[in-house]
Structure formats: C-alpha cells, structure tokens
Write a structure and sequence with these properties.
This protein is an all-alpha fold. It contains 5 helices and 2 strands. β1 and β2 form a beta hairpin.
Length: 139
C-alpha cells in the first residue's frame, strides 16, 4: 500500500469515527484501543451491524453534521463537567499545599545562599607575578 493510499484510508476511518462517537467514548474509558477499532473496521467494513452500538452516546443518537458548533460545544461542556465530578478536591488541595511547601523551601535556600555570598569575605587575592609558576626546592 502506498503512503497516499494509507493516508486516504486513515481519513476515511476518521470520518467513520466521527459518525460513530461511541467509539471515542469507548477508547477514553479504556474499553478498546484505536488499533482494535481500525482492524475491526478493515475486516468488517462500515456496514456491519456491530457498529450500531457506537452511533449513540449516552442513549441519544449523535448528530453527524460537523458544522453544528452548538452540539460540539455542549459535548465539551459535558466532558468538563464529568471531569470535574471525578476530581477529588481534597487531594488537589493537598497537592497544592505540598507544592507550596516545596516552593517555600526553595526560596529559603536561595535566600540563604544569597546571604552567604554577601557575608563571605572576598577571596580574590592579587596574583604575585614575580614568583615562578613552579616551585622547585633544592636538595
């Protein structure tokens, strides 16, 4: 199969997925992988009755017209709502508290190093150029 044919087949599969949004939900929930759906699509074709269960999401028939922005916007909001319901806010607050503590510790370390640098005596001594670079002591 040439690259161009492969690209066309992938585009056809993408359109098929848009017409069957239940597939997207199945992959997101971890039920199947895209590779499994693709292989099934290649073997069975688009007209197989096994695809009927993926044409619906949450018991409602999906709208296959991608030009309808309102339907897509509602889907996005619904996904965000579902995501927020799954988030445990106490855990989020705990993680934020830990992060805040880590940042505070880093800031205190930086300030300690800055203070040490300010109070440290200057170690820059003038170099004595009259002395040879190697000292050999006579026996």
């Amino acid at each position: 199969m040439t690259n161009k044919q492969g690209q066309q087949e992938i585009e056809t599969f993408k359109k098929f997925v848009q017409q069957n949004p239940g597939m997207i939900k199945e992959v997101r929930n971890g039920g199947k992988k895209w590779q499994d759906f693709y292989e099934q699509w290649v073997l069975l074709g688009e007209d197989d009755p096994s695809w009927d269960k993926y044409k619906q999401v949450d018991g409602t028939v999906s709208e296959t017209n991608p030009s309808s922005g309102k339907k897509q916007g509602q889907g996005w909001m619904k996904q965000m709502t579902e995501f927020m319901e799954k988030v445990d806010m106490e855990k989020v607050e705990g993680h934020i508290g830990q992060l805040n503590g880590a940042i505070t510790n880093i800031q205190s370390l930086i300030s300690q190093f800055q203070d040490m640098k300010k109070h440290a005596p200057s170690t820059n001594k003038p170099v004595n150029n009259n002395r040879p670079p190697f000292h050999f002591y006579g026996d």
